[in-house]
Amino acid sequence: MYSVVEIQGHQYRVKEGDIVDVQKMDAEVGSTVELDKVLFVGGETPKVGTPVVDGAKVTAEVVRQARSRKVIVFKRKAGLSRTKNGHRQHYTALKITGIKA
């Protein structure tokens, strides 16, 4: 069984056992998070929400809080200037532990 869940404005297709990297959440490593904005539940009898499926929940465990790989931002204007910056986005890794329809 899989599900489409909305986490902080982004939609993810998840199934039990998946590890999903989402935007940084205020949660401790090892804690359990319940996601109640379930938009779709697939399986033998799929359920489509309008906009969310009533009574459906996805539970997840926080695996780690980290930062992604560095992205180099290089801006150049011919003959004038150059600017080199780097950016590392904070993220939270969630392990999906259960889907309840």
**Which radius of gyration do the C-alpha atoms yield?**
18 Å
User: How do the strands of the widest beta sheet line up side by side?
Assistant: 2-1-5-6
Compressed to H and E, one letter per element, the order equals EEEEEEEEEE
Give the number of helices: 0
Tell me the β content: over 45%
Given the helix and strand composition, which structural class is it?
mainly beta
Name the overall outline. Answer: elongated
Helix content: under 10%
What are the low-pLDDT stretches, counting only 5+ consecutive residues below 50?
Answer: none
Report the sheet with the most strands, covering strand number, pairing sense and barrel closure.
Answer: 4 strands, antiparallel
Overall average residue pLDDT: 93
Q: Number of DSSP strands?
A: 10
N-end to C-end Cα span: 10 Å
Count the domains: 1
Topology:
Blueprint: E1 2-7, E2 10-15, E3 19-23, E4 32-35, E5 38-41, E6 47-48, E7 57-67, E8 71-77, E9 81-87, E10 90-100
Antiparallel strand pairs: 1-2, 1-5, 3-10, 4-7, 5-6, 7-10, 8-9
Q: How would you describe this structure to a colleague?
A:
The chain has 101 residues and is mostly beta strands. The protein has one domain (2-100). The chain contains no helices and ten strands. It has strands spanning 2-7, 10-15, 19-23, 32-35, 38-41, 47-48, 57-67, 71-77, 81-87, 90-100. Strands 2-1-5-6 form a four-stranded antiparallel beta sheet, with no helix packed on it. It has a four-stranded antiparallel beta sheet with strand order 3-10-7-4, with no helix packed on it. A hairpin with a 3-residue loop joins strand 8 and strand 9 (81-87). The radius of gyration is 18 Å and the shape is elongated. The mean pLDDT is 93.
